[in-house]
Amino acid sequence: MKIISFSMNARFCTLNKIAACLTGRGRASSKTFLALPDAKHLCSMKKRALLIIIPLTLAAGVLQAQNRQQVNNLATFARVWGFLKFYHPAVANDTANWDKQWLNSLLTIKKIENNEEFKSFITRWYSQLPKQKVDYSLSQPSGDSVFHVFDEGDIKTFAIPAQMKQEFTDLYLHHRPDSNRYVDNRYGKYTLDYVYFKEEEYTNPDYPDEAHRLLALVRYWNIINYFYPFKQGFAPNWNKVLADFIPQFINAADKDEYRSVFLKLTARIKDSHSFFKQEEFYAHRLQNAPFLLYYIDGKYIVANDQYGELMNKQGIKQGDEIISINNKNIKACEDYIKQYCTGSNNAVLHREIGRNLFRMDTANSIQLTVRRNGKLITQQLKLYSYGELYQYRLKHQPKLWEDMGNGIFYVRFCKITDGKQLKQMYDSIQNAKTVIWEMRDYPYFPTTQIYRPGIFGNQRSEEINYNTDLFYPGTYRAHTDHDAAPTDTLNLPRYKGRLIVLVNEYTQSLAESVAAALKSRPNTIVIGRQTAGATGNMFFTDYPGGIGAAYTAVKVVGSDGSFKQGQGVKLDKEIKLSVKKMQSVADYELEQAYQQALKDLK
Description:
The chain is an alpha+beta fold and 602 residues long. The protein folds into 3 domains: 1-188, no CATH class; 292-390, Pdz3 Domain, CATH 2.30.42; 398-601, 2-enoyl-CoA Hydratase, Chain A, domain 1 (Alpha-Beta Complex), CATH 3.90.226. It is built from 22 helices and 23 strands. The chain has a 6-stranded mixed beta sheet, with helices on both faces. Strands 1-15-14-20 form a 4-stranded antiparallel beta sheet, with helices on one face. It has a 4-stranded antiparallel beta sheet with strand order 8-7-9-10. Strand 7 and strand 8 (328-329) form a beta hairpin. Helix 2 packs across helix 10 (238-251). The longest helix has 49 residues, at 39-87. It is globular. Mean pLDDT is 88; it is low at 1-60. Residues 363-576 form the Tail specific protease domain.
């Protein structure tokens, strides 16, 4: 039996046409009602009309109710399926193939027409698992260093019989910690600070059948439900997500629709680490403008980036306001893209919208209208692939550090890629009165592992990490992470002077970790604009159809409030932008950092 379509538009259209003919509303020709009947005849006509409308309306209502019933049944089954996957020993030990349990149960669930029938089904289905003895001497971890993203209160919201709820509550509260076939944090000889999932990937076909599309949905939903440390604050109304997305996953008509709806799903968690990965899907879409966009006062403004020659060649100037793309006004473009974008704060949400404004179709160029000094300018804008922009950057490498005058040096830390460069940089800034440390980019990971002796000496930094408890899904434990005393294998000279760390919404993840660590250094301030608000290890998981999705897997709290998820790195001074300010100088944020350095020297 194929599930009834969740789109009732055609049926409503038919009903509307009938109603139009009977009532004179809608598009029915007025000629139909030219000969007005007398009152008695009119009453008879109304009765006949009602006799026609009522059965059709009731039929539509029944279909809608059946659709709601199917969605509710599938949503409840998804929640039960996920709970047992992580908390029932027989499932955790893989004595039951849990994917098959999902796939084989769907046909039966879709035939169920009322709540009582569903409760009977799920009771029978659950009773097939071995009954577990509960050890009441065991209990869930608790204390000040522990928090839960799932607890017995969630079980109370399951739409299942009371006896099952009680058994589930006992399984949860008195859970016997043991390994789980589907979840692990060991990788060879290493113990990770996050868990990963050992699932059948079902890479092919790239457009899975309905059952496997729904499997992708319920896998993702349950992973976030139990293993996302920010679920309460950054996954709003998570219990409602299943009902919202089950119809969309069922009705995804082809490969692209399936990927689009999964992308919308990942946007339901407000996380700057919420990435969607599918190479084939993105290959022809990733065309890029040769500039960044800043979101200022509700407008998308061109910001100078590292492609100055490409901007000049096309007549684009910093401070230009984006008005329309391919004759679509920017608000319409924003509204369309917004459903597919996310971020830990509004700054990143608009960063991502701006990044994707030029990817709304596969063309290599677009018609762009901008406002410059009050005038509208329309032109064709050439777009570039990542490869083209990468080659441009290779040919136009900026200086890794430079003397800005007055004893102030500027260091592009994120561009330093080897130990030799790092040592030369520290040598060059030894006599600097102030160093502006650029962090509006993503640093090279190996460099972040060796730079500390030259800027911190023997100083160690610390942060509080909350990691999932492998044996208690939904539970997180805190531990204080002390950086090991830096090992100076490069014999780096140490810079002890004033440091100004420059950040904005492009400062994300590892960049935020570096900036937050630098903030703990004496004689250091952080200035700029709100950062991305997402650090801590992220993790990709795979889903049917060869797609992947990521989320922040570890909760990090910086020492002394230097970092907080969503808020980002704590600023000592905020830099506020305007179009006029951006037009006044090539890099207003850097100029403000320089002016701050001059002020501090007085």
